[in-house]
Amino acid sequence: MTETVIVRSFPTEKLDAATRAAIIRVCIAAHQEEDFRNLFSYIPSGGRHFLAYRDGEVVSHAVVTTRWLQPEGQPLLKTAYVDAVATLPTFQGQGYGSAVMRTLAQSIADYAIACLETERIGFYARLGWERWRGALAGRGNEGLVPTPEQEGILVLRLKQTPPLNLDSLLIIEIDGRIW
Ligand SMILES: CC(C)(COP(=O)(O)OP(=O)(O)OC[C@H]1O[C@@H](n2cnc3c(N)ncnc32)[C@H](O)[C@@H]1OP(=O)(O)O)[C@@H](O)C(=O)NCCC(=O)NCCS
Prior knowledge:
This protein is of the alpha+beta class. The chain has helices at about 15-30, 40, 95-105, 120-125, and strands at about 5-10, 50-55, 55-70, 75-85, 115, 130, 135-140, 145, 155, 170-175. It contains four helices and ten strands. The longest helix has 15 residues, at about 15-30. It binds coenzyme A. Coenzyme A (COA) binds near residues 31, 92, 95, 96 and 126. Coenzyme A binds next to helix 1, strand 4, helix 3 and helix 4.
């Protein structure tokens, strides 16, 4: 792709019905997962969406919501948690997803760290994301819930990120789900 990809960002509250429908279409087509129909029930408000367009049509998307991570020995960190990263299959491999993720990374300076879960580690590693190698757990009302089977948890260091030991324990505050 030769021309620069335009990526625009919107809070969930500002997305109109047509754009919501387009985002859902992109996520379902990319992930082959019908549950994305409920994306806006999971994120009714408070998300920050990043959209790449081709000829006025949404072709790639990612969303950030606020969650809380605690690496061992650190305070709770305000975390930009990234979900629903997706590019329409026809337009994959043309730089749209990378453009979305680069714009996203430049637009979350108000967070202390970013985090996501993926099976496509190489795609994110190229963009500076790092795999958490240490133990993982959720923290809920009942205390810590270890998640030893969980793989593909990546973090992105931001300006405000404290020094990290990627081999230490990483805890996430449970928020309806763990990772
Ligand atoms: C993962 C995903 C979001 C990436 O989006 P994308 O728009 O295809 O991303 P890009 O085109 O920027 O990059 C994809 C690959 O194409 C390569 N690429 C980008 N532009 C290219 C170009 N002009 N020519 C050749 N290759 C190119 C990138 O280097 C990248 O390779 P890598 O994954 O080995 O690093 C998309 O493939 C997708 O929706 N997949 C299905 C769902 C999924 O797996 N989501 C992520 C898990 S959370």
